[in-house]
Amino acid sequence: MYKRIILFLFVICLSSASFSQTIRDRNNTSIGKIESDGTIRDRNNSYAGKFESDGTIRDRSNSYVGKIESDGTVRDRSNSYLGKVESDGTVRDRNNSYVGKVESDGTVRDRNNSTMGSARGVPRRYAAAYFFFDFR
């Protein structure tokens, strides 16, 4: 089972490199960005949360909402297994079913190979978390 994350908060986790990248939907419209200090901003440039280098994702009020582990395992706030993002960008749900892929150029595709959006310059596992997993 997979769900598309509704909130931009669950987009990405900061890697060791500093970057600021825009996240776009299927229509190439900006839906937010990640600043080099880990601050997550929504499409209106409002503070949407923060992420930590260990994969922990926090919301606007600093509450723990989930984690993307270094091996690509995705867990929700109750530590339940949601799925995994493999090193080649393939995304599998909790039943190991194929749900999509994040290409090396940042393009995100669903199980039917349709473009869902893009996250150029963003690590694959974190871009995948936004498009394929629901932490609510």
What does this protein look like?
The chain has 136 residues and is mainly β. 7% of the residues lie in helices and 39% in strands. It has 1 helix and 12 strands. The protein has one helix spanning 124-132, and strands spanning 21-25, 30-34, 39-42, 47-51, 56-58, 64-68, 73-76, 81-85, 90-93, 98-102, 107-110, 115-118. A 12-stranded antiparallel β-barrel has the order 1-2-3-4-5-6-7-8-9-10-11-12. Strand 2 (30-34) and strand 3 (39-42) form a beta hairpin. It is globular and about 35 Å long. It starts with 20 loop residues before the first strand and ends with a helix.
Q: What is the secondary structure topology, with strand pairs?
A:
Blueprint: E1 21-25, E2 30-34, E3 39-42, E4 47-51, E5 56-58, E6 64-68, E7 73-76, E8 81-85, E9 90-93, E10 98-102, E11 107-110, E12 115-118, H1 124-132
Antiparallel strand pairs: 1-2, 1-12, 2-3, 3-4, 4-5, 5-6, 6-7, 7-8, 8-9, 9-10, 10-11, 11-12
How many strand segments?
A: 12
The secondary-structure element order is EEEEEEEEEEEEH
What shape does the CA trace take?
A: globular
Total of helices: 1
* Average pLDDT taken over every residue: 80
Most strands sheet: 12 strands, antiparallel, barrel
What is the distance, rounded to the nearest whole angstrom, between the alpha carbons of the first and last residues? 14 Å
Strand content: 35-45%
Give the strand order of the largest sheet, numbering strands 1, 2, ... along the chain.
1-2-3-4-5-6-7-8-9-10-11-12
Indicate the structural class. Answer: mainly beta
Unreliable spans: 1-18
Helix % is under 10%
Radius of gyration: 13 Å
